Request: fold
Amino acid sequence: MPSKSSGFSVYDVRADPARLKRESLGPLFARLSVGLKPPKLDANWQQAYQAISTESEKFSRFSLDLYNGAVFFTCRENETPAEIQTLMQRLDLLLELANLRATMVAASRQSETA
Reply:
């Protein structure tokens, strides 16, 4: 959940590398899922995530799993750890952009009611 120390919600959703899981989808592909901290996401953050992920092709491979509080994506079965790390960095960027957008919306709503 967002913190409210500044009078409005400040979001800080992050990928939890300890919850990274890999599932084989056959000989060519694998599905990776990584848990989010915190796992419960409010509607404002969910909308920000969906907007960011649909605005850029670079983020379209990442799917939000609200039930499990995670993001999953596919990759080639033979991708190296360095290539997977690059994908994780891209996911971190997506989450940071979603945090910023959700925080901006929360701040905007706060100023409209003030």
